[in-house]
């Protein structure tokens, strides 16, 4: 039995996909369990750059099975276009992609509603990816949702679509006016036919693989600070991005988990709105953004950049129970004279050592830092920890001490071989 779970520890974009890509090589099965096309998972594989939104990164290996499990929300149109893109790259999907019959479907009206609520919310807008994620999960929980299995049963699908439309008619009047509903329904049925051979009851499949001793790897999307329960609500996504989502999103029980790896950036970033205590709105933030290519893989938006925040890292480790840390983008720091790490906060002059979960308290914090020496050397070709500049080693040691967790993987570049294992 072997189940390894990879989770984002921060606000997403931690370079999870690179770590998944590395570990996928030694796995048999790769599983996505939450989120949808809001994810932008970038990997450089055999000198080629790929961006995945919905299909697990493991698809790049011809011998790996890939599963889109029940907790994911799927835009069927995006799924088809991603499948076509992959096939164009001569990657044979064949009989190794599986899609959960229970996964919920993002309809064009969900995208419309996402855009509409962002517009209406004005200053309270979340800064979503506008992929319809929130409205799809809302409908799942409101029990209006349409699931992958429904695409394979046209009569039932039509009933479900009519139900959702009847319930939202006034909200989506503008969308209805410009939409040929019958055409949309027919297209969904067509997509159902195209994907029917991928569709399966994935909880049984994943448990079967585990029973057979297959090595299963979970590919988290977004990050813990975007979790609907534990993140910086309301500036979050609409799924459980932390460990609980891996369980409910796939149908395995927690006793089956062998290892949970938290992916953390050496600095922090976030896209969209919401509090970000260590944000650098200055030339250092700009330096990190340019050097780290910190522009959204899904929306192209510039990412907000800031120092490593140990309060958030500790909180994330507590929620998820990380066994190991993969520390990414350490190379971006080369060239900075000094580097800061936030060790605690102050609110109204009082020291705060725990993450203030309630957002309006988090907005008030003043981050307090330690400053360490930086390094000038380019480190992207270093393979051994002991070959890193001593100040870079020091940075890693401080993070390990703060978290009391081993940093087992250090990423020093986008390429797979630009990685230090410890
Ligand atoms: P990966 O998997 C970074 C952010 C959006 C917004 C908030 C809500 O690539 O790390 P949503 O569209 O989900 O309703 O937007 O969540 N967000 C992400 N930020 N990486 C992601 O995915 C994200 N997916 C959503 O910017 O702030
Ligand atoms: Mg992203």
Task: Tell me the CATH superfamily of the largest domain.
Answer: Adenylosuccinate Synthetase, subunit A, domain 3
Low-confidence stretches: none
What proportion of the residues is helical, as a percent range? 25-40%
Give the CATH topology of the largest domain.
Answer: Adenylosuccinate Synthetase, Chain A, domain 3
- Approximately how much beta-strand content do the residues carry? 15-25%
Coarse structural class: alpha/beta
List keywords for this structure.
alpha/beta; Adenylosuccinate Synthetase, Chain A, domain 1; 3 domains; ten-stranded mixed β-sheet; four-stranded mixed β-sheet; 14 helices; 20 strands; globular; binds 6-O-phosphoryl inosine monophosphate
In short:
The chain contains 14 helices and 20 strands. It has 422 residues and is of the alpha/beta class. A hairpin with a 7-residue loop joins strand 19 and strand 20 (419-421).
Describe this structure in words.
With 422 residues, this protein is an alpha/beta fold. The chain has three domains: 2-97 and 209-259, Adenylosuccinate Synthetase, Chain A, domain 1; 104-195, Adenylosuccinate Synthetase, subunit A, domain 2, CATH 1.10.300.10; 265-421, Adenylosuccinate Synthetase, subunit A, domain 3 (Adenylosuccinate Synthetase, Chain A, domain 3). Helix content is 33%, strand content 21%. The protein contains 14 helices and 20 strands. The protein has helices at 16-24, 76-88, 108-121, 133-142, 148-151, 154-168, 173-177, 181-195, 202-211, 243-248, 283-291, 310-320, 359-362, 390-403; strands spanning 2-8, 29-32, 41-45, 48-52, 65-68, 73-74, 97-100, 104-105, 199-200, 215-219, 259-265, 268-270, 304-306, 308-309, 324-328, 338-347, 350-352, 366-373, 406-411, 419-421. It has a ten-stranded mixed sheet, sandwiched between helices. Strands 14, 16, 17 and 18 form a four-stranded mixed sheet that branches. Helix 3 packs across helix 4 (133-142). The protein is globular. The chain starts with a strand and ends with a strand. The model has no long low-confidence stretch (mean pLDDT 97). The structure holds 6-O-phosphoryl inosine monophosphate (IMO) and magnesium ion. Magnesium ion (MG) binds at residues 12-13, 39-40, 296-298. 6-O-phosphoryl inosine monophosphate binds next to helix 4.
């Amino acid at each position: 039995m072997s189940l390894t779970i990879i989770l984002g520890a921060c606000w997403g974009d931690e370079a999870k996909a690179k770590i998944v890509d590395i570990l996928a090589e030694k796995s048999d099965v790769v599983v996505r369990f939450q989120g949808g096309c809001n994810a932008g998972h970038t990997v450089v594989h055999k000198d080629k750059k790929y961006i995945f939104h919905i299909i697990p990164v493991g698809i790049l290996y011809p011998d790996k099975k890939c599963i889109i499990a029940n907790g994911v929300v799927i835009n069927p149109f995006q799924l088809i276009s991603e499948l076509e893109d992959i096939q164009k790259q001569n990657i044979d999907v064949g009989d190794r992609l599986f899609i959960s019959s229970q996964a919920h479907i993002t309809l064009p009206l969900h995208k419309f509603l996402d855009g509409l609520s962002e517009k209406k919310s004005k200053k309270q807008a979340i800064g979503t990816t506008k992929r319809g994620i929130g409205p799809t999960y809302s409908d799942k929980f409101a029990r209006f949702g349409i699931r992958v299995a429904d695409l394979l049963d046209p009569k039932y699908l039509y009933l479900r679509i009519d139900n959702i439309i009847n319930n939202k008619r006034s909200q989506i009047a503008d969308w209805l006016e410009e939409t040929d509903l019958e055409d949309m329904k027919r297209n969904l049925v067509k997509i159902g036919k195209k994907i029917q051979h991928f569709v399966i009851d994935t909880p049984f499949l994943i448990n079967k693989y585990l029973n057979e001793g297959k090595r299963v790897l979970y590919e988290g999307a977004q990050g813990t600070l975007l979790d609907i329960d534990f993140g910086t609500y309301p500036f979050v996504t609409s799924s459980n991005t932390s460990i609980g989502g891996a369980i409910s999103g796939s149908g395995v029980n927690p006793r089956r988990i062998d290892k949970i790896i938290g992916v953390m950036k050496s600095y922090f970033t976030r896209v969209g709105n919401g509090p970000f205590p260590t944000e650098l709105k200055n030339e250092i933030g700009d330096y990190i953004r340019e050097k780290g290519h910190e522009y959204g893989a899904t929306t192209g938006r510039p990412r907000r950049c800031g120092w490593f925040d140990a309060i958030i890292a500790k909180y994330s480790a507590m929620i998820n129970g990380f066994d190991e840390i993969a520390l990414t983008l350490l190379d971006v720091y080369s060239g900075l004279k000094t580097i800061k790490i936030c060790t605690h906060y102050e609110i109204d002059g009082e020291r705060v050592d725990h993450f203030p979960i309630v957002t309006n308290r988090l907005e008030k914090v003043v981050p307090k830092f330690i400053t360490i020496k930086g390094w000038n050397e380019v480190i992207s070709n270093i393979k051994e920890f002991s070959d890193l500049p001593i100040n870079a080693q020091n940075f890693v040691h401080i993070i390990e001490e703060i978290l009391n967790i081993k940093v087992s993987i250090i990423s020093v570049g986008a390429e797979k071989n630009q990685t230090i294992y410890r």
